[in-house]
Specification:
This is Monooxygenase. By secondary structure, this protein is an alpha/beta fold. Helix content is 35%, strand content 26%. Strand 5 and strand 6 form a beta hairpin. Bound molecules: flavin-adenine dinucleotide.
Length: 394
């Protein structure tokens, strides 16, 4: 297929790969540059909410994703001793289910939808010049083990370079960057299938989530309220100490845990929002534009939506900046309010999980036990504006 419009995508995360797939479907020649030498995200699952699944459907990946994923079944909230605060099925939180899969499955699917040469690994973007009405954007790149830098030009550059986005720092030098949300998170996927009842368990300043994947392996996430940057010499031992006495099967899961499969990240978000997501011929998307906490499970979903909307806005844009500038401004207009609203709401939801006071936690648990079955569906309705999103039609 001949393409006359070129895009460079910085970063091969979920956002960057989706952008490349969406742009190629719109007849853009999109190349992804990724500094890592392999695309193997270890240790984590990902929940894709209905809005993300719809966005993937719009670029032809809906059925393949559903083939790989587990549909969210029962939902529930427990106390560390195992007592249920509230329990129900997925319909309690919405008419369409969230789906769960291993991140590597999603990355493989996106990568597989691209031509072989469309992703260049081991290539770091060291500088971006956003160009302007009469100049294309340019990037400087350095290949691994190569001291020589090279320059590349494109009609559009998509900055999908993640929460610590070097492109964002360069284009918005006054922006304070991501801030700590007060909690740190560990994630792993069990190597073998394990029988679990899917649920989230809320303790004092800690949360554990257990969700089965389609093949029966279990995605487990654990959070704790700790000072930013806290790390332990024996991370697995620390998790056993903190969570090993919680309800089964946590002791068994943590007892078998291979440290090499464990991810540990502090939860951070872009509290000070960006004024816009486009500068010259550069568009920012995903965590680079609006990093959020994971409490609504929407960071990846919003990156996928961004990618689909960006490509739709660029569908009619020939190489000339007279058209590209307005198309990117329209992208900002479509995405800024929504993504920043989701980020704010996610931070608010996360705040309740960091409560440590026994009094507050006791009241929270009591309230949940008493009226949880009533509260949960109503709380879920507050998410309708996020989950009901529809992709652009044309
Ligand atoms: C604990 C936790 C749980 C989560 N759970 C969910 C969930 O269930 N559902 C959900 O939707 N979201 C979830 N998220 C959020 C989601 O993971 C992120 O929002 C999403 O991965 C962001 O994708 P991205 O493509 O924007 O950035 P990233 O995935 O960070 O990708 C950025 C890429 O850019 C590359 N890069 C950076 N700089 C350069 C450079 N200079 N040159 C070349 N390449 C570069 C990086 O190597 C990286 O590969 C969770 C997040 C956390 C922390």
């Amino acid at each position: 297929m001949a393409h006359d419009r070129t895009a460079i995508v910085v970063g091969a995360g979920i956002g960057g790969l989706t952008a490349a797939v969406a742009l190629r479907r719109r007849r853009w020649d999109a190349t992804v540059l990724e500094r890592a030498t392999s695309l193997e995200p270890v240790g984590a699952g990902i929940a894709l909410a209905p809005n993300a699944v719809r966005a993937l459907e719009s670029i032809g990946l809906g059925d393949p994703v559903l083939d790989l994923a587990a549909l969210q079944g029962p939902v529930g909230l427990r106390r560390p001793d195992g007592r249920w605060l509230v329990r129900g099925d997925a319909s309690m939180v919405g008419p369409e289910p969230t789906v769960l899969l291993h991140r590597s499955q999603l990355v493989d699917l996106l990568r597989g939808a691209l031509d072989d040469g469309a992703v260049r690994l081991g290539v770091t973007v060291t500088r971006v010049d956003p160009g302007g009405p009469s100049e294309r954007a340019t990037v400087r790149v350095r290949a691994r083990d190569d001291s020589e830098e090279a320059g590349l030009a494109a009609d559009v550059v998509v900055a999908a370079d993640g929460i610590d986005s070097p492109v964002r720092t360069a284009l918005f030098p006054g922006q304070p960057g991501p801030v700590y949300a007060g909690a740190t998170a560990w994630r792993f996927v069990t190597p073998e299938p394990v029988a679990v009842e899917p649920a989230e368990t809320w303790g004092r300043g800690s949360v554990v989530g257990l969700t089965p994947l389609a093949d029966g392996r279990v995605y487990c996430y654990l959070t704790a309220t700790l000072p930013e940057g806290t790390r332990f010499r024996d991370e697995v031992g620390e998790l056993q100490r903190r969570f090993g006495h919680w309800h089964p099967p946590l002791r068994a899961l943590l007892g078998d845990l291979d440290p090499a499969t464990l991810l540990h990240h502090d939860l951070r978000w872009l509290k000070e929002p960006l004024p816009r997501y486009d500068v010259g011929r550069v568009a920012l998307l995903g965590d680079a534009a609006h990093a959020m906490t994971p409490h609504l499970g929407q960071g990846g979903a919003q990156a996928i939506e961004d990618a689909v909307v960006l490509a739709a806005n660029l569908r009619a844009a020939p190489g000339s900046a007279a058209v590209i500038g307005p198309a990117l401004a329209a992208y900002t207009a479509a995405r800024k309010g929504r993504t920043q609203g989701v980020a704010r709401m996610s931070a608010q939801v996360g705040a309740a999980t960091t409560w440590r006071s026994p009094l507050l936690v006791g009241a929270r648990d009591l309230g949940m036990r008493a009226v949880g079955r009533w509260v949960l569906p109503r709380a879920a309705r507050r998410l309708d504006w996020i989950l009901d999103w529809q992709p652009p039609v044309a």
